Amino acid sequence: MSHLLPVELPKAYRLLNHGPTVLVSSAAHGQRNIMAAAWAMPLDFDPPKVLVVVDRNTLTRELMEASGVFALQAPSTEQAQLTMDVGTCSGRDGDKFSQLAIASHVGSVIDVPLADGCLAYLECRIIDEPHNQQRYDLFIGEVVAARADSRAFSQGRWHFEGDAPRSLHYVAGGSFFATGEAFSVNGSADGE
Amino acid sequence: MSHLLPVELPKAYRLLNHGPTVLVSSAAHGQRNIMAAAWAMPLDFDPPKVLVVVDRNTLTRELMEASGVFALQAPSTEQAQLTMDVGTCSGRDGDKFSQLAIASHVGSVIDVPLADGCLAYLECRIIDEPHNQQRYDLFIGEVVAARADSRAFSQGRWHFEGDAPRSLHYVAGGSFFATGEAFSVNGSADGE
């Protein structure tokens, strides 16, 4: 994991700003899980907060509510099949990390298993909002640690070049878009 | 606008599922406005709901709260400068549609001005959640009408090919990613 470098927290929103599909990791009472979520995005800059929609019938939901924490991961184009696979089986039918042979490491702050090889990791503590959780399956997390693969994200920006792995954007039925070409228009100079 | 076709509401989430940056239109008491938002995503399938973060200091916020409605638009790569421009000036300093010469049409159900030439339009009624709005600048909308450019979205899927306009993913400081190449992995056959 030598390419992983910390991302300063006020820039952590940049990891999700372009709308990538994520993986959600969770763990509690001796169980662990990982699922895919197309519905995740930043909610605030500093302290950074994120939103993620997690269906009430999932094991991930149960583990998140038991532990009060979760982690988001931005998988790469090389992990598209993995993203699809963890999104189409249930952790209730057996440990996905074992069944799918997913190499993992533990978060730097949060005790959840993270899939090796992702482009970015955001470790989050749940800001408890029972109404959102119960009515909309919507969770708010405060990002307490963020790291990214320095080959793809540096100086607060994603840099995807040529055939190097890119982030993913889920469509449906196993179809994805890769994050595409970067381009600029006239904008503010401060990078905001 | 002859290429615009209705999108059936249970498929409306597909317009935002891949995480594009959007424009937000609003109107109330004789004023109208349009702004950019990187933080918008689906919240539910059917009836379709969306989330969008709208800062409390914006005119858009004031108009949304006065009218109870808004519309999201998915701009194309050809509209990146427009997206940047409406995101960096305030409607409080004058009508953006006039100042930026934005051609527009009125929503099919909601009375807000929509920028011509976008790839998709989602017209929404606000589901009032005062706590989310006040604490997190977070709005929930129920999508009551959806349309898309049939050259880019048909049969419930985006189809971006070659040099045709694509949707946008905002980075920062005037930088964007275009939606990239489509690819598939082994997945569920039902398209879900």
TrEMBL record, chains A, B:
UniProtKB keywords: Flavoprotein
Occurrences of domain Flavin reductase like (ranges): 14-160
The protein's required cofactors: FMN
UniProt entry tagged with the keyword ATP-binding: no
Any Pfam family hit: Flavin_Reduct
SMART domains associated with the record: Flavin_Reduct
InterPro entries the UniProt entry points to: Flavin_Rdtase-like_dom, Flavoredoxin, Split_barrel_FMN-bd
Family that this chain belongs to: Belongs to the flavoredoxin family.
PANTHER family listed in its UniProt record: FLAVOREDOXIN (PTHR43567:SF1), FLAVOREDOXIN-RELATED-RELATED (PTHR43567)
Protein name, UniProt field: Flavin reductase
Record organism: Pokkaliibacter plantistimulans
Lineage: Bacteria, Pseudomonadati, Pseudomonadota, Gammaproteobacteria, Oceanospirillales
